[in-house]
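job 3f2a | input accepted
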Amino acid sequence: MPEEKISVIAYSGYRGEETPKKIILHGEQIELVEILDRWVEEGSVNRATKRFFRVKGSEGTIHKIYYDDGKLEWFLKTED
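job 3f2a | predicted structure (80 res):
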């Protein structure tokens, strides 16, 4: 699956970037109206943690995004 670095406006709690509220995709700000699913994956080699979210945007599209705790960046994961 290809990945695209994106900007996210998130609620920041004790862990930092915790819960996404808006994503900025190709210059357009999209409100996230619902978090449909969330999970954490840890790499087997470098133990890098990624926090995934499956979210519904205000435009009606389902997006799969994740926060890379090692890189401190957000990414959009798209289907091939």
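job 3f2a | The chain has a mean pLDDT of 89.
job 3f2a | closed
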